[in-house]
Input
Amino acid sequence: DQQVKQNSPSLSVQEGRISILNCDYTNSMFDYFLWYKKYPAEGPTFLISISSIKDKNEDGRFTVFLNKSAKHLSLHIVPSQPGDSAVYFCAASADAGNNRKLIWGLGTSLAVNP
Amino acid sequence: DSGVTQTPKHLITATGQRVTLRCSPRSGDLSVYWYQQSLDQGLQFLIQYYNGEERAKGNILERFSAQQFPDLHSELNLSSLELGDSALYFCASSVAVDSPLHFGNGTRLTVT
Output
């Protein structure tokens, strides 16, 4: 049972345009969400996070939006650059006392074309 | 550079064998996590340690075990290896259980 779903395996965008990566989740107990970026032959790199008490978090070109009622979050990259080409993973977790276990989506491969 | 070091980078071994993967977390990070990424699969959480103690278990097989040592480095032991164990194994660390994870570059295990 995939609790975190990234329904688009791949996305292709022109340089300078907006990239929108989507993520849906099923567990209403999730209260912390993260996006990671992964280049080939490297481990995932933390990009941006959002707590369920917010609906938006911005860091430079990256903005994450959270819609709790729809159990949906999205990552916006504006403007997209060729160096953003990577696999993007969405992850979610719920507070379980002293423990948080991240549940990961399968990733979306973003290609930004010059 | 995430500060998390994994060795070896590549490992090729035969079915039935046993291997040990090693991870040094970022300086100051007390939590260590192990993940498996198989072909066409997302990141599957295996196990987490915090300051030497097992904190959480995910989809870790009984043939697999891990530990975190007093110097906070961790080892993942995989035994009675099967072809299906071929995967990328990532280690990650964090300063606290609710902090973002910092990943190493993984160990690519190939079982032939």
Remarks:
- Chain B is about 0% helix and 50% strand.
- Chain B has a mean pLDDT of 93.
- The longest strand of chain B covers residues 43-50.
